[in-house]
Design brief:
By secondary structure, this protein is an alpha+beta fold. The chain folds into three domains: about 120 residues, Immunoglobulins (Immunoglobulin-like), CATH 2.60.40.10; about 150 residues, 2-Layer Sandwich (Endonuclease, Chain A), CATH 3.30.870.10; about 200 residues, Endonuclease Chain A (Endonuclease, Chain A), CATH 3.30.870. It is about 30% helix and about 25% strand. The strands form five sheets. It has a seven-stranded mixed β-sheet, with helices on both faces. A seven-stranded mixed β-sheet has the order 19-25-24-23-20-21-22, sandwiched between helices. Strands 4, 5, 9, 10 and 11 form a five-stranded antiparallel β-sheet that branches. The longest helix is centred in the C-terminal third of the chain and has 29 residues. The radius of gyration is 24 Å and the shape is globular.
Length: about 550
Amino acid sequence: MRARVSNEGITVNAIAGTHVVILGFDLDKARRKECLGFAIQREDKTEDERYWLRGMKTFPSTNPQLGPGGTASSRDHPFQTFQWADYSAKPAHEYAFTVMPLYGEPANLREGPRVTVEIGTEIEIGAPHSMFFNRGSVATQEYARQFQNIPPDKLSGEDSAAAYRWLSRGLEEAMVAFIGRAADASWGIHGAIFELRWPSVIKALREANGRGAKVGVLYHGKNDTIGPPNADAIAKGRIKGLCRARTEGYLMHNKFFVLTKDGKPVSVWTGSTNATVNGIFGHMNCGHIVEDPAVAGEFLDYWREMWDNENHKAEQDWMGERNPRPPAKADEQKPLTTVFSPHADDAVLDWYRDISASAEDALMMSFAFGMDGRFKDVYRKDDEVLRYALMDKAASGTGQRLQEGKEEIEKIRRRPNVVVAIGNHIPVNAFDRWLKEQSRITKAQVPWVHTKFMLVDPLGEDPTVVTGSANWSDESTHKNAENMLVIHGDKRVADTYLGEFMRLHSHYAFREAVARALETGEKWEPQNLAEDSSWQKDYFDPHDERCRKRRYFAQSG
């Protein structure tokens, strides 16, 4: 949902997903002089509560002496930015955000005109799309505040359960509930999942079978680090007879379940989430339900092909006949297109590149294993498109290849229209007010960002979202068994994905900045608020990324 209000030289633009509300501000030139930032008041009309939002930065001259993890009201210590987001919003709630510029001096702040924008957050479960994102950030100050920075498996009883719930943010519950829809013998669950180990998911499959539902799950059976742990968890969970290991070919990297009724497809769960502790509670992941029998039917046909066949060449031939991608020109703008792999060539990957290059205003992409050269070319384009990249690591590989990959990303991120964030955490209490954070929930190849999605012009009238299991690589399109959805023109989907992208991008951008400074020996100090209007300078410099961000999120042209 979107809402934009302008009044007395102040503009507020709000974009609401399910758990995130993004606010973009702008000031007419006459309103900028002596402006020290913005106070923001949130009113939750659903739960009848109202308060000023809080931040960690304060004016030096009126320093309230915050302790570690402490925060101050934005009414006294305003936000010096033209973009802010509320990450504590709840789905299907009605909110009113009042934004007020503050002027003068820190000890004697004067209120400017107030602008109030009313907006409702999206529902999580809807038709045809339901979307769920985990917290994706055990490395966070809020986890340190709530759970004393203790890993969830080291907490006891309800404290441990509460920590897992907080990290899951509804993702585990949604996956289990989807499987739980298989209520009796008239239903079926047909799954294909790379890693199947988390007890609640295995239990849900066992219980569905116990109710008489037909259950069949493919899992990746190769690799010493993947196959045996899957097999052990499946045996321990007593569902061995319901599962089949894929041991030939390349990675069976899917993460989907198809729900059937009386043998006919009803709905499909897909996305990037493996049924593991790290997949559900650790690195950034999403689950996406499509309530569409035709789409579910395409997934079911794909599942049957994988269940009956492990020959790589035969699968490529099947894709060429049953899932030719890219689609015909007449079908490229369909509301929803499925993409399966392996294909015989890289035409699918070239199509993803073309979709990303079609952005007219903004592009957001997440990368779990570095950035393929095709997308580096897109991020190097000389134009005014604002491009964000959220990366688990700057590059993959070893030695010279790794170093060259890092250097290429460094060059790309210097462009004024490119904003890159790479996963990290606050490794030590590098400066006061900050609590020490967990680095990750468990040791993993991908500790921070595991999603694979792309947003093209998400705030436009015809946004495009591409989401699923594939890592934007040659391997993912012509070797691995993968799936993706290409969704056109759905603002609800775009707004939800945008909120989650910006939540994690902002989160990791700051932590990466700290890590980069510490690597170079820079001394980090508390970042105080400026006591005059100098903080605005970069936001009105047309050559600075902050200026582009202000214009885009305020939709001020």
